[in-house]
Amino acid sequence: MKFSLYLFLFSFSLTCSNLFAQDYPDAGSWNTVNIEKGISEKFTALFTEEYRVRENFTKLNLFYTNLGIEYKVLKNFKAALVYRWINKYMDDNSFSFRHRLMLDLTVKHKFGKFAVSYRNRTQAEERDIYTSENGSDPEWYSRNKFGVKWDIDKRYTPFASVEFRYQLHDPRNIESDHTWHRDRYALGAEYKINDKSTFAAYYLIQREYNVVGPQNLYIVGLEYNLSL
User: Fold this and answer.
1) Percent of the chain having pLDDT more than 90?
2) DSSP state, 174?
3) Maximum distance among all Cα pairs of the chain, rounded to whole angstroms
């Protein structure tokens, strides 16, 4: 089982490296804690705290807090409404304060040992409301994420995902309105600590296009999940 896991991770990483090896502008890390608490049979409270580092792991990028509620519509279909408060560190050593509202619609289904999922996220974000000229004009994006998990071991579960982001409207980047302009490719593995908690590590590549000054990111991610 472990050999299959290593082979899966190695093969996917080679594919990603071949796709994007020609450019290496920046690397960083995303470190996340997710906590969920069941309120009833249908509703679950959500909390996330994430800390990001950029410029080859040397500089703070941002940290954010998520607060949300998830509703189980059907057995394999969930909807979630989440608010995100973001503190982004700027080049002039100041912080940009941002507010994001997200609506997630997620469908999951199992095929033997494989669990596949699709998530559509519609998000609106305002930044520096009282200090920016376009602060009260929100950015709107539609994000489409496809994921797969491979249940090959009671403790270890490898996973992979790809996400495509579509810009509906951004007052600061109008030239990219109504275009696909970012995608993400991730590969990782989850370790089950106990019935309530898991730990995951992943490698993510983010590619930008159809924007001014596109930047590619290479991210190492660590994630802890707790269900109460």
Assistant:
1) 77
2) G
3) 56
Which amino acid, residue 14?
Answer: L
> Quick check: 19 pLDDT over 50?
no
**Residue 125 corresponds to which tokens in the numbers above?**
């974000």
Average pLDDT for 137-166:
94
From CA 33, how far away is CA 40, in angstroms rounded? 22
Q: How many helices (H) and strands (E) does the chain have?
A: 1, 11
Instruction: Please identify which residue in the block is written with the tokens 């050999």.
Output: 3
Q: Could you count the other beta carbons within 10 Å of the beta carbon of residue 186? A: 20
Measured in degrees and rounded to the nearest 5, phi and psi for residue 47 equal -140, 135
What's the rounded Cα separation, in Å, for the pair 12 and 110?
21
Do the beta carbons of residue 121 and residue 104 sit within 8 Å?
A: yes
Domains and CATH numbers, the chain: 2-227 (2.40.160.40)
Q: What is the rounded distance in angstroms from the CA atom of residue 221 to the CA atom of residue 187?
A: 10
pLDDT at 20 over 90: no
Residue 63, token pair as written in the block: 């940290």
